[in-house]
Design a protein that fits this description.
- The complex is a heterodimer of chains A (125) and B (285).
- Chain A is mainly alpha-helical and 125 residues long.
- In chain A, 58% of the residues lie in helices and 6% in strands.
- Chain A is built from five helices and two strands, in the order αααββαα.
- A six-stranded mixed sheet of chain B has the order 6-7-8-3-9-10, with helices on both faces.
- Chain B is elongated, with a radius of gyration of 21 Å.
- The chains are: A mainly alpha (125), B alpha/beta (285).
Chain lengths: 125, 285
């Protein structure tokens, strides 16, 4: 699993870890019931604080992506395809918001945006 | 015993300087960064924790035990790096091994020599021939080779180049793989602490002015940059400090997201410890 942390990103480090793990779950790189690295191990490997990894794991657990078994560690929860899709949609909405913001501030019409989208998206497979 | 170190109402008076009601709580398995300007009281606090200065008041517990009453027992399980080297300069790293074997029951010569090798330190050269960086590394190797549970480090990375700092930070992180172990580390090289410290305690002028988790400070706190016009629209209770410069206002806020929701000001960045220190000390309210 790749976990890539950018220090210059305005996105919090725990958030970046969450995204990487969610992506690995979505792409099946992390399988159901597969163990995640321990909090301390991951902190050491990423050279970040234990609390940062803990925050990421705690939130992933609250959101239902992983579960923690006391004394054993954390593992990937039973996959919830709907939940993953919803997450991705939220991500997409953020970008769309940005598109709308830029287009409005520079007088680019909705149609122009939609045309560009159609063009760039290409054929649906 | 969940807290490895507890300091309650520590006070100490010197000529013209005063430590006032210092409170510190460091849980097991965590790293606390202790930051502040030179002369803010970092070293004095550390010396009180180690009970090597006199006439301080307050309660200090290490491993749940009183630091004065159980001095001997506690010291077996602490590793210390202080600002000044405590070994005579004619000794060699080999000599240190011989001495430490007699001092600590748990001294691990094998581990000590492993660190010497990792740090490329010569075992049979006198300390006086070693560079400043090499001495620091020797002190760290010495502090950690009796399997302590708590490391107390005063400016451990001062004088080290980036490569050596990196090696040292690796060792600190290796050390807390055991969740019974903690590190209390004072530094004004804040970038070292930004990533690995779980807690940040900020001392200024003998007083603790901030104690937060790294997450709260570096992810939630923010620095807003805006014009005078925008600044005047901001409610005073929504920021901690501000600093005015020729072209902009820099404003320290406790929660970037909350601020962003309330105000239509777009430039809000994460804060670095360095910026935080400057704003807390030089900023106005």
């Amino acid at each position: 699993m790749d976990i890539i942390i950018s220090n210059s990103s305005n996105q919090p480090i725990f958030e970046q870890i969450k995204q990487s793990i969610k992506k690995a779950i979505a792409t099946d790189e992390l399988k159901e019931n597969e163990m995640l690295p321990s909090i301390r191990n991951l902190a050491q490997d990423l050279r970040i604080s234990v609390m940062t990894v803990k925050r990421a794991y705690d939130e992933l657990e609250q959101e239902g992506f992983i579960k923690t078994i006391h004394g054993k560690g954390s593992l990937v929860a039973t996959k919830n395809i709907e939940l993953l899709k919803e997450e991705q949609m939220k991500e997409i909405e953020k970008y769309i918001d940005k598109i709308i913001l830029i287009s409005k501030s520079s007088n680019i019409s909705k149609k122009e945006i939609l045309d560009t989208f159609e063009y760039l998206y290409g054929e649906e497979d | 015993m969940e807290n490895i170190l507890e300091v309650k109402n520590l006070c100490k008076k010197y000529n013209g300087f005063e430590l006032q009601n210092i409170n510190i709580t460091l849980p097991k398995g965590m790293i606390m960064g202790f930051i502040g300007e030179n002369g803010a009281g970092k070293t004095t606090t550390i010396k009180a924790i180690l009970d090597i200065i006199k006439n301080y008041t307050g309660e200090i517990k290490i491993f749940g035990l009183d630091n004065k009453k159980y001095d001997k027992k506690i010291k077996e399980d602490i590793g210390v790096v202080l600002d000044d080297m405590f070994f005579p300069e004619i000794l060699t790293p080999n000599d240190i091994n011989t001495i430490m074997k007699d001092i600590y029951k748990n001294w691990d010569s094998k581990l000590y020599f492993k660190y010497l090798t990792d740090f490329s330190l010569p075992a049979n050269k006198a300390i006086k021939t070693l560079s400043k960086g090499m001495r620091k590394k020797l002190e760290i190797a010495t502090a950690i080779s009796h399997h302590p549970k708590l490391l107390i480090l005063d400016e451990p990375t001062a004088g080290l180049d980036p490569i050596a700092r990196n090696e040292v930070i690796d060792i600190f992180q290796e050390f807390i793989q055991n969740e019974e172990c903690s590190i209390f580390i004072s530094s004004h090289i804040t970038t070292d602490l930004e990533h690995i410290a779980d807690y940040i305690t900020f001392i200024n002028n003998g007083k603790i002015i901030l104690e937060k988790t790294r997450e709260e400070l570096l992810e939630d706190y923010g620095i807003v940059k805006c014009s005078k016009e925008d600044f005047e629209k901001i409610d005073k209770k929504d920021f901690i400090k501000y600093k005015k410069s020729k072209y902009e206002y820099e404003i320290l806020v406790e929660n970037r997201k909350a601020f962003n929701k309330k105000y239509d000001i777009n430039t809000i960045d994460k804060i670095t410890l360095e910026e935080l220190m400057v704003l807390m000390i030089k900023g106005e309210k």
